What does this fold into?
Amino acid sequence: MKKKEKKIAIISSSPLMIILALELQSQGNKVVVFDKSTVKGGAWGWFNLNLNKRFLNVPKYTNIIHPYNEKERRFIKKMNSYLKEKHKVKVDKVKKKFDINYKYKDKFSYDFSKFYENSLRKIKFSKSYISKIEMLADKKVRLNNKLLFDKIFIPSFSGIKEIKILKKKIFYPECRDIVSEHVSIIAKKFKLKNFYYSQFFDDCFDRVRIEKINKFYNLTARLDHSIKGIKISKLKNTYVDRFAKKSDVIKVQLSKFHNYYRNKEQLKKLKNAIKGSSVKYIDTTQFMCGIYSLRKFLNV
Ligand SMILES: Cc1cc2nc3c(=O)[nH]c(=O)nc-3n(C[C@H](O)[C@H](O)[C@H](O)COP(=O)(O)OP(=O)(O)OC[C@H]3O[C@@H](n4cnc5c(N)ncnc54)[C@H](O)[C@@H]3O)c2cc1C
It folds into this structure.
């Protein structure tokens, strides 16, 4: 028997929530993804670079995917095949320097640009900020006092201010607002040789990664507290030459990211508050643990 079509809301356009949206849609549901930002991708966002009338999608932030435990390590092969075959994510083995604090043998890079090109066209987005969720007597959910859905899926890091589940007290999810700053440097080449990623790079930058984009290279890095708030002119004059010669640099861009971070305790309270309701929690604390927790639903 065909399942009844449900009206489903999803908060956040991060890759995991987009993958979830595509799956729910393919099962015959009507899905709307809400994101308060015009920039899609959340912590995986990108900017468009116009290089001699060619537009390139350049990541703003450093993201790497790797297992955090033995269960995830055993799962990586299945996840890579699923991402390649179902979502057009380019997955390559990395042989260059790749420093993380978890030891495992095979390391991979993931290029989501084709995934975004392909998936964003298929999804209905609404640029709105959802601050209030209520579950009503008929099990429907009402968002911001006006929008009605059968279900809502929320990720780990969203800025929801209050959740009211029938017969329960209003729940105010706690989070810590963190604004991180990141640099992207597009260059013909970098001084660092045979380098892909380093989690702790030096006194001013961490999460440094270099990837090839078209004929160029993109270095992304997060700024340490000691240089947060720096002007782009000072960054260009003082810091860029530790990565590349000035003559090789094509563009330098600074980006800020606002994250509604929740620690384990805050996530536990959130999950407890919505238990058994039409508000569903998705673990997006890391890409890989998210796919792992959804593996049965996604048929991975
Ligand atoms: C800078 C940074 C780097 C990271 N790097 C990695 C990494 O390398 N590998 C990894 O696996 N994980 C990484 N993470 C963890 C990351 O949080 C997850 O991978 C994933 O992106 C989390 O998805 P999310 O949807 O919970 O949140 P986010 O990625 O933070 O996205 C939230 C999105 O939802 C929107 N939004 C939030 N609240 C609302 C609301 N109430 N209404 C409407 N829109 C809303 C925001 O505008 C944003 O676009 C990183 C996180 C940060 C902050």
Q: What stands out?
A: The pocket of flavin-adenine dinucleotide is lined by residues 11-14, 16-17, 34-37, 42-44, 61, 63-65, 129-130, 155-160, 180, 257, 259-260, 284, 286-288 (CB under 6 Å). The radius of gyration is 20 Å. The first strand starts at residue 7 and ends at 11.
